[in-house]
Amino acid sequence: MEDKDMIICRCEEVTLGEILQAIKDGARDVTGVKRRTRAGMGSCQGSSCERLVEGILRRELKKTQADLKPDPARPPVMPITFGVLGGDQD
Ligand code: FES
Predict the structure, then answer these.
(1) Are 69 and 31 in contact (CB under 8 A)?
(2) Among 23, 56, 66, 83, whose CB has the most other CB atoms within 10 angstroms?
């Protein structure tokens, strides 16, 4: 019996139980789990947890690595003004 309270994504404090529930709710790839739980959206951007999430998906869905759609890498984005781009410090 595995511990469903085990933290898989430390940055967002997402547990194994939450990931299993996301899969039960229809997540079929890393992006689907990410959208439902925020696993992989923390400060490390999934470098610590993405492989664990992939492994859980493979095990639960009985898929191979090649069957899973890779998560598209997207850098964190935040809005900034043109003034900041132009060097305005305010
Ligand atoms: S451990 Fe999941 S985003 Fe950092």
Answers:
(1) yes
(2) 56
Extents of the domains making up the chain: 7-72
Domain 7-72 grouped into CATH 1.20.1250.20: no
Res 80 pLDDT > 90: no
**Ligand 1 pocket member 11 (CB < 6 A):** yes
In this prediction, residue 24 has a pLDDT band, given cuts at 50, 70 and 90, of very high
Q: Which atom of ligand 1 is nearest to the CA of 50?
A: 2
* pLDDT score of 90: 65
> How far is 26 from 75, CA to CA, in rounded Å?
25
Residue 50, ligand 1, Cβ within 6 A: no
Whether 54 and 78 have beta carbons less than 8 Å apart is answered as no
pTM for the model stands at 0.79
